[in-house]
Amino acid sequence: MGILSQLSIIHLLWAAMVFCQYEDYDFEDEYEEPPDHQQPYYFNFNPNTQAEVSRFPFPVECARECFCPPAFLLSMYCDHRKLKTIPNIPRHVQQLYLQNNDIEAVPAGPFTNVTFLREINLSHNKIKFHMIDHGVFAKISNLVQLHLQHNELEEFPFPLPRTLERLLLGFNKISRLSGNALEGLPNITMLDLCNNFLDDSALKGKPFSNMKNLMQLNLCNNKLQTMPPDLPSSLMYLSLENNSISYIPENYFNRLTKIIALRMSHNNLQNIPRNTFNLPNLLELNLGHNKLKQVFYIPRSLQHLYIEDNDIEIINVTLMCPSIDPMNTNQLTYIRVDQNKLTIPISQYAFFCFPHVRTIYYGQQNVNVNKSTQLRISVFRRFLTPEEYDEAEDDHETHDHETEEDHEAEDNYFHPYF
């Protein structure tokens, strides 16, 4: 009993000491009174409570030029506000939206205190390369996504942090990629360089070869005349539309076996080596608006084929499908062949090779120089359920009223997100 009594007394003394520590501690000492225009937000753990203690050990503030929604306290919206400079960024912010402003420079000052920043959107501004403070982005150690499309960049904005995964640089004036521009970016999965001034000389240094995690590369609307060299084997989406590429070297895709979608419309392709696209995972192939005279081998995985606006006079099904394997059938479901020089429909043999074909869009054919003609049927459809038939009829009406602008709209490059 004596020992138990002593333990009870010790326990009471310890509890009293802890209580006194909390009684003497003033929780408000750590916080300074915020300015009138900058009232802090707090996380609410209980939806029925108006304000409770923040998860952060400091008030969640917001720049006065911007908006920080109570429902998205980690995001700061400064877009569409005619800003000429970047406001100071509170250290808790994870998503920063500064698109559609008049910002010309990216100084280091506003980013001094950032700790958790993961996404920056500076698209649709007036930023030039020499107006970006050297290393300003590289110091943001948690940055994952950076939007700089629709600016006035003349060069690739390096250095960048190793954490970066998505980089969007479309619609700028980038004409060269310096030797070390893409070094130290092991985690990049998506790189968008569409609508710039890149030519073959800009890619001589094989800038993409060490990007081992790159899955999507957009190089559309540039000045390339040859295929980009030494692409990483991790690539799944490749966009090369609207260049001046005239040929694809044999065995070019041998290392790129993971390719799912390839878009090369609006180039100068004339001949395709027979087994160029022998790719086991290819689902979409767009070679429309080129100068092709004949078809080529179709991999069994392919589902959508676009070869409109070429110089094809006859569809040689044997070239597309040299053998039939009932246990491993071709998956092709849609073919677009309008604006070629076809005078007869595709051979019925095609339906043995491609048993899943639902739609062949013939549209108008350019048989004569000054006159387009139409085959007996502009759209061939088969094996449709009633619901699919109704949907196809709606699609048919759309095709009947297509304009050249509509055709080009279909060839837009990949959406930046996948």
Automatic annotation (TrEMBL):
**Biological process (GO) annotations?**
cell adhesion
Query: What is a single Pfam family found in this protein's UniProt entry?
Result: LRR_1
- Which organism is the protein's source? Oceanodroma tethys (Wedge-rumped storm-petrel)
Where does this one sit in the cell?
Answer: Secreted, Extracellular space, Extracellular matrix
Would you tell me the protein name for this molecule? Osteomodulin
Q: Which residues form a coiled coil?
A: none
Q: Please provide the record's keywords in A-Z order.
A: Cell adhesion, Disulfide bond, Extracellular matrix, Glycoprotein, Leucine-rich repeat, Proteoglycan, Repeat, Secreted, Signal, Sulfation
**What is this protein for, i.e. what is its function?**
May be implicated in biomineralization processes. Has a function in binding of osteoblasts via the alpha(V)beta(3)-integrin.
Give a GO cellular-component term: extracellular space
Q: Which family does it belong to?
A: Belongs to the small leucine-rich proteoglycan (SLRP) family. SLRP class II subfamily.
Locate the region Disordered. 390-412
Instruction: Extract the signal peptide range.
Output: 1-15
What PANTHER family does the database record attribute to this sequence?
AGAP008170-PA, OSTEOMODULIN
Q: Quaternary form?
A: Binds the alpha(V)beta(3)-integrin.
LRRNT domain segment(s)? 61-95
Spell out the SMART domains in the cross-references: LRR_TYP, LRRNT
